[in-house]
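User: Predict the structure for this protein chain, please.
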Amino acid sequence: MKKIGIWAIRTLLLGTFLVLTVYVFDWRLMLEQGNTLLMHPGWLVWMSGMYLGAFALRAWAWRVYLQRRVSYMNCLYGLFYSLFLNHILPIKAGDAVRIGYIAKRDAIAWGEAAHSVVVLRLLDMLVLGGMTAAGILALGLSLSTLFFWLVLAGVAIAGSFIYIVLRTKKHSFWKKHLYLLRNGFAGLDGILVVSATLASWLLEAWIVVGVLRTLRMDLPFLSGVWVNSMTIAGQVFHFTPGGIGTYESVMSFSLATLGIDWRQAYLISLLSHGFKFAFSYVIGIWTLAFAPLSFREIRSWIQGKNKKYND
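Assistant: Here is the predicted structure, written as structure tokens:
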């Protein structure tokens, strides 16, 4: 049932993308607005800097979470490989290479590397979810009482589970990962990891805001943060290279909710996503040149056949 539900949402989002393409896509307007964006190199440099800064902060948060036992540049290269591969493959396989890269370069256990990536991905979703919920409330769309109680129940169940695991000696696997979780978020380092993650998503929001500003559309920065949060959260249902279709559908809907015409909203989503694709390819080629990996290594990590590091 879970798989059916996920594929139903994926099909709906892709169908929305196709409908928008057929009914609101204007090729002439696309060329005109795309040229307008290219005629503002200052904004392109600013957007690139903000996007690069977002990954710099995530790499730093990753290193802090691993208690600074890994190289900052290896964390950054791992993130760049993940970004690049997620934009050329139909599945989100980039994280597997990110895990393999840091495990190989810094000789840490595969299990610990995987743990850190999963935890930080979950943190991303929590931050994006919080931004999305805050935006919904600011727009005057109240969250349902049912949603509140579901969240409360989820927290209670998770808390009970953690308590049981900690009290049970048999579950050494879970106790180990809870130990890593506690150490990763202990004291000031935990605050730094969460703060850097939050700031990274604020920086990434400048892509959609930058596109809007170059097209002379007035949208407050915080509204751009909400649109970006909604769009990235929707990438949970990613199943095409770079999330093509899913990205455009969610961003178009979010912008239309803020009062932007559907045709313009769709165009903005195409331009911002196109910018991300261009950035990911440029940074991917740069990473391959300065931190090369063999195709065999990449394939083995994606297929899970090269976990030669200790769990």
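The chain has a mean pLDDT of 82.
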